[in-house]
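Dear colleague,

Thank you for sharing your sequence with our group. We've completed the structure prediction you requested, and as agreed, I am returning the results in plain text so they can be pasted directly into your records. Please verify that the sequence below matches your submission; if there's any discrepancy, let me know and we will rerun it promptly.
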Amino acid sequence: MFTDFFYILREKGVPVSITEWMTLMEALDKGLADSSLERFYYLARSILVKSESYYDHYDLAFEEYFRKVGDLSQLREELPGSKLVLEIREELLRWLNDPINGINLSEEEIEKLPRMELYELLDLFRRRLAEQTGRHDGGNKWIGTGGTSPFGNAGQNPAGIRVGGVSRGRSAIRMAHQRRYQNLRSDLTLDVRQIKVALKRLRLLARSGPEDELDLEETIDATCKNAGEIELVFTKSRKNIIKLLLLIDVGGSMTPYAQLCSRLFSAANSLSHFKDFRYFYFHNCIYDHLYTDMARRKKFGIREFFRTFDREYRVIIVGDAWMAPSELTNRYGAIDYEDVSETPGIVRLREIREHFDHVVWLNPEKRDIWERKSIAMIREIFPMFELTLDGLDEAVRELVGRR
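Please find the predicted structure tokens below.
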């Protein structure tokens, strides 16, 4: 039973053993899944997955075997003054996740496409969902793929709502697609040594604590003055007083850089010489909340963030800064439906820059695209460096105030 599922799990990197697989078969024989696919999902995961770090691999294998795409049956929207739940038919989602080849328009052609205000876009999206009865590809009206319609995926539109599929143009105003994420691993040891070496340069030493360190020079001086009789002199030890905050953009266009971010996170998390080290997550831009988990379910309010962390903290923000300019400039401009903020993202980023004395932005994208509008806007606020070893060295010098 489910033999192919076993091999798919192994192909996706989940280290499933025969013993664990036989335990699952025994659990199924006892009826623990109760003929429910959801129950089977959690039952199999609890038996077959040894660590949370493999949850993503398990989800990919489960999706491939059972032809499911997570929980995409509902799209939730929360905006001031209204609360609406839109049901998207599973048939429509199947169409959207099997897109035709997209079209290629020039920048001039894209500029000629009509643009709508956010409220107009959302209202039209509701009506299209209610009216649409069949699949559409290559068009400019319905929810479909490969066209210029503002609804769907794999097409081209300067400002629309992506439903299903994957991020390509990186310009969607809303992303109607629930994603599952797993927290970045902090136990990686491969390829982090050089990053750790670079981060170790991030230190400012000051003497603090009890006088428990032998001061060799003062001991020699005191001994000489004491006619050669040894007189030990102790002093407070020198400790790193750097307090570090790491803010990481996750999901969407940052997915290709997940491993690189994991290495940076692992290196910072494994260093014990910081006076304090904290980390938070966000998606594309920071608004009214940061998040303490990568799935962005556990919120940490931005006002509490400012109250908790004083201006002496050194801040490293990691993200590609590549998004629709409206996400920075518009009220309620966040790409995620549940991230409702009246304050534009660009205003919030300026507040962060003004609150802390030392902030840098690490960008995994190459410098040759940094002239794109959203990246250029963020570069005006933060010193930006490439997420490479050389870029990290430059960022560390910026953070300690030595250029």
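Summary note from our side: The longest helix spans residues 118-131.

Kind regards,
the structure core
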